[in-house]
């Protein structure tokens, strides 16, 4: 492996970058913006920050041009004064400018910020910000992105009302009242009253008497369940999800990986949009980490100039379908053995070469190239015959 590859793997492993990126992705979904911060403490440290403490300073001429990132938060400390414990409140700030970080600590008394108690400026050695924001959907007049849940509040509230009303109806009629002859009543010697031991109320009816009854009532439960189905459809549309993402598949709808991807078109489009935001952000974070290590004189530091990230859509692979596709490509001469093995097994470097050599030696031991299973390729569009394949 190259020094660059070893360096990027070390940075990812030391910082648990996958977990950090996952936390930032949750912030992007919940708040519309997630924050990466890079700092140096013996090595480059990549960590997520709360979006609530991030205050960007933008150009008055262009809201998209950020001039500084301010991270500010309050906290409390207990101190001893004249034998008593006193709780004091402070404001801590970090002002991230290109090549410089300014930190300060201010006291807060009666909601008034006092003069700085601590103040320090640090040169980073890099002419870039060490704070990298990742935004969700953006518009031209916004600095922070839009969250995924504001549009869903009304639908979720209506779903809660529908479910609560259905539960109330079912609970009310789970223990119905009864009526019958008064001979079924039993005398309670403790209270001296006559009653019937049952769940609901019992109405004794004498011979020739009219039994009690309800005004004709219909709970409209079927309409309530139809309303829930309609609300769920709207929820899937607005949230860019699919019933298939939650395992709610009708029989025969997804019999292959390709069919499942068709059902997941909306979620995959959303994943692609998020990927377009995270790809440049992660590349910048890794580049900043490597530059910071070099600027701080860390031994063995390597600057990562050309970073490439292989992304997947998150759906499970249909191994049988993927293998069939690779066999068809290889048989038709549209790919090499090396590329097929790389896609099938994710092999790289020496492991990939060893697998190729092993396959070649086995084929040579069999007295020639191993025969691949017969493959019937779909006919080109416009060609007839039994061999023509079609998409279901």
Quick overview of this protein structure:
It contains 9 helices and 13 strands. With 392 residues, it is of the alpha+beta class. α8 (337-345) crosses α9.
Total DSSP E strands:
13
Largest β-sheet summary? 6 strands, antiparallel
**Shape estimate:** flat
Order of secondary-structure elements: HHEEEEEEEEEHEEEEHHHHHH
End-to-end C-alpha gap: 44 Å
Average pLDDT score: 84
Fraction of residues in helices? 25-40%
The helix tally amounts to 9
Number of domains: 3
Strand content: 15-25%
Assign the structural class, choosing from mainly alpha, mainly beta, alpha/beta, alpha+beta, or little secondary structure.
Answer: alpha+beta
**Low-confidence spans:** 382-392
Radius of gyration: 34 Å
Question: Can you describe what's shown?
Answer:
- With 392 residues, this protein is an alpha+beta fold.
- It has three domains: 1-148 and 240-315, no CATH class; 161-238, no CATH class; 317-374, no CATH class.
- Helices cover 36% and strands 21% of the residues.
- It is built from nine helices and 13 strands.
- The protein has helices at 3-14, 17-31, 153-172, 221-239, 257-263, 265-295, 319-331, 337-345, 349-365; strands at residues 33-40, 44-49, 54-58, 66-81, 84-97, 100-109, 112-113, 118-123, 131-135, 178-180, 186-188, 193-195, 202-204.
- Strand 5 and strand 6 form a beta hairpin.
- Helix 3 (153-172) runs antiparallel to helix 4 and helix 8 packs across helix 9.
- The chain is flat.
- The model is unreliable at 382-392 (pLDDT under 50).
């Amino acid at each position: 492996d190259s020094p660059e590859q070893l360096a990027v793997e070390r940075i990812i492993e030391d910082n648990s970058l996958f977990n950090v990126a996952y936390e930032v992705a949750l912030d992007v979904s919940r708040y519309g913006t997630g924050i990466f911060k890079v700092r140096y403490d013996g090595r480059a440290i990549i960590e997520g920050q709360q979006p609530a403490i991030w205050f960007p300073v933008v150009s008055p001429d262009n809201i998209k041009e950020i001039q500084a990132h301010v991270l500010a938060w309050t906290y409390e400390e207990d101190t001893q004064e004249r034998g008593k414990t006193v709780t004091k409140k402070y404001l801590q700030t970090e002002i991230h400018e290109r090549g410089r970080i300014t930190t300060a600590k201010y006291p807060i008394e009666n909601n008034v910020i006092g003069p700085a108690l601590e103040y320090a400026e640090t040169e980073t050695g890099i002419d870039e910000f060490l704070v990298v924001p990742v935004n969700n959907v953006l518009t031209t007049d916004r600095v922070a992105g839009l969250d995924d849940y504001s549009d869903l509040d009304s639908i979720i509230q209506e779903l809660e009302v529908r479910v609560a009303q259905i539960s109330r109806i079912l609970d009310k009629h789970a223990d119905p009242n009864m009526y019958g002859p008064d001979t079924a009543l039993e005398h309670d010697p403790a209270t001296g009253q006559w009653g019937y031991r049952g769940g609901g109320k019992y109405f004794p009816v004498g011979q020739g008497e009219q039994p009690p009854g309800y005004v004709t009532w219909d709970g409209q439960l079927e309409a309530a369940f139809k309303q829930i189905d309609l609300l769920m459809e709207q929820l899937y549309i607005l949230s860019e999800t699919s019933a298939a993402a939650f395992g709610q598949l009708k029989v025969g709808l997804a019999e292959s990986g390709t069919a499942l991807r068709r059902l997941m078109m909306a979620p995959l489009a959303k994943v692609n949009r998020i990927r377009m935001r995270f790809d440049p952000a992660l590349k910048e974070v890794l580049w900043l980490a490597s530059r910071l290590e070099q600027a701080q004189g860390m031994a063995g530091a390597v600057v990562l100039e050309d970073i490439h990230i292989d992304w997947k859509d998150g759906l499970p692979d249909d191994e049988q379908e993927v293998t069939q596709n690779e066999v068809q490509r290889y048989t038709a001469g549209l790919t090499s053995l090396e590329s097929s093995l790389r896609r099938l097994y994710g092999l790289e470097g020496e492991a990939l070469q060893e697998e190729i050599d092993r396959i070649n030696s086995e084929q040579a031991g069999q007295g020639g190239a191993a025969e691949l299973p017969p493959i019937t390729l779909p006919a080109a569009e416009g060609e007839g015959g039994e061999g023509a394949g079609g998409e279901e």
